[in-house]
């Protein structure tokens, strides 16, 4: 069988077996992961197809392949605005509600190498303080990837997984390795965390363990993007059924619009969207009463450090087109910058950009796209809006358009540190090493010139000191910790 025919058959089998529609239009990515497994077994694609179809050898290899094609990136406190909502609102509310029982049950579904459940354990330790020994905390991390779970149980991480943490935070919560580049989570955060292999589809097949119930908080971020929308909706309903009557569900940015479940109520906190089980026959809940409508959206609390995941993101409608470059210039045109090129003039309040960010954080990309286009039509020289346009382009896999938008923002305000930073992330994703490091260096230089404890313009609650640390991290030196 020719290799191309084998790939077509393999693709059909992967989608049929896993229901991962994510790979329907990502042949290059799927081919890379199939070849990775085949090469590990010294097989070509036709031979690998025969292996999977063999009743004796197939089941074991399918488990390995399913793990390979669902490996996702993970790092501690990923998506800072979601963790701000957890730290400032959700976990304090749960602690208050469970003060009598002193017991919390939390589930991190699709936990990969464990950064997410350990991040929750660290937050609870901070919030409970001296009272932590009096509480029973059960945190489950589940994943389909046995290698990732083994790494999670070891609790050892490299700089790449800890890149959002400063040196003081690392030493507070981790034990440094002898080489100075590996870190082990401290024992006090590991006691209440356990890891188990679980395929989320078992929730729909009636095969999930009975103990998967009565959770106070479930995190299932960037897992549902692999499935068809109808399947994602069914999984959300299944997760909701395993929450306490007042429990919380947290999805990824690109998944926020996947549910219309009547059992869940949307809540917007710290610029991000969460869901809470609707309280029955109870007094109005002050947190859950905040719906996702425009009047209920709070200012974005913390900037998105990376553009939202593109997989599963809704594409803009055909008529939704952002305004062209101001004055008809091309993205690469050189001209004298607007005068004065001052942050205080070009970024006076950021209200429009914050509104776009708040809507995008809820996964409503069509609305954010339209809002950004309308705002730019009215204010074509607003650098912050051009940066938001760049993030929206990046969320929809349009790297060239995203780069042009970031460069427009910098043309309008070359002192815009967050635009330099986001441009650096985009270039790093394209392995444009030199250009990425120059962008990060400029972001760091500008950040260090800002007051260290004050929020960076366009960065939500990110301070000058925090941005300087992020920009100073070598984003191109390491990759995932999964073996």
From TrEMBL:
The keyword DNA repair does not apply. The keyword Methyltransferase applies. Residues 308-320, 327-336 have a biased composition (Low complexity). Coiled coil: none annotated. Signal peptide: none annotated. Residues 1-280 form the CheR-type methyltransferase domain. GO terms for biological process: methylation. This is Protein-glutamate methyltransferase. It comes from Rhizosaccharibacter radicis.
């Amino acid at each position: 069988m020719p290799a191309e025919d084998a790939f077509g058959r393999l693709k059909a089998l992967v989608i049929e077996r896993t229901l991962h529609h994510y790979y329907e239009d990502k042949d290059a990515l799927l081919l890379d992961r199939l070849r990775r497994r085949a090469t590990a077994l010294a097989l070509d694609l036709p031979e690998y197809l025969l292996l999977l179809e063999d009743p004796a050898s197939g089941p074991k290899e399918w488990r390995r392949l399913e793990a390979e094609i669902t490996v996702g990136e993970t790092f501690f406190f990923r998506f800072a605005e979601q963790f701000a909502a957890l730290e400032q609102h959700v976990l304090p509310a749960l602690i208050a509600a469970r003060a009598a029982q002193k017991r919390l049950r939390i589930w991190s579904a699709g936990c990969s190498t464990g950064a997410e459940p350990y991040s929750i354990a660290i937050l609870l330790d901070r919030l409970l303080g001296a009272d932590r020994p009096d509480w029973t905390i059960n945190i489950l991390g589940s994943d389909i990837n046995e290698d990732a779970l083994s790494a999670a149980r070891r609790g050892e991480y490299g700089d790449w997984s800890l890149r959002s943490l400063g040196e003081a935070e690392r030493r507070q919560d981790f034990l440094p390795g002898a080489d100075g580049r590996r870190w082990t989570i401290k024992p006090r955060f590991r006691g209440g965390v356990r890891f188990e292999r679980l395929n989320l589809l078992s929730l729909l097949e009636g095969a999930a363990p009975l103990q998967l119930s009565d959770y106070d908080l479930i995190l299932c971020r960037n897992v549902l993007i692999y499935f068809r929308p109808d399947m994602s909706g069914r999984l959300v309903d299944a997760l909701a059924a395993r929450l306490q009557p007042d429990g919380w569900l947290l999805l990824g940015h690109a998944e926020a619009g996947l549910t219309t479940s009547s059992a869940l109520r949307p809540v917007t906190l710290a610029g991000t969207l969460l869901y809470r089980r609707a309280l029955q026959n109870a007094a109005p809940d002050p947190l859950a009463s905040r719906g996702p409508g425009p009047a209920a959206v709070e200012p974005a609390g913390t900037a998105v450090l990376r553009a939202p995941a593109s997989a599963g993101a809704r594409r803009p409608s055909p008529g939704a087109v952002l305004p062209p470059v101001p004055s008809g210039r091309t993205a690469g045109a050189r001209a004298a910058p607007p005068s004065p090129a001052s942050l205080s003039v070009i970024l006076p309040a950021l209200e429009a950009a914050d509104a776009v960010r708040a809507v995008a954080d809820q996964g409503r990309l069509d609305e954010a796209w339209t809002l950004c286009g309308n705002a730019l039509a009215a204010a074509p020289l607003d650098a912050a809006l051009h940066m938001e346009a760049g993030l929206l382009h990046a969320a929809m896999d349009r790297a060239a358009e995203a780069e042009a938008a970031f460069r427009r923002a910098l043309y309008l305000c070359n002192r815009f540190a967050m635009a330099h930073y986001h441009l650096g992330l985009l270039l790093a994703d394209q392995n444009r090493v030199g250009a990425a490091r120059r962008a990060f260096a400029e972001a760091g230089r500008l950040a260090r010139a800002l007051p260290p404890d004050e929020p960076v313009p366009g960065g939500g609650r990110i301070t000058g000191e925090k941005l300087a640390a992020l920009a100073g991290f070598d984003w191109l030196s390491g990759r995932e910790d999964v073996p």
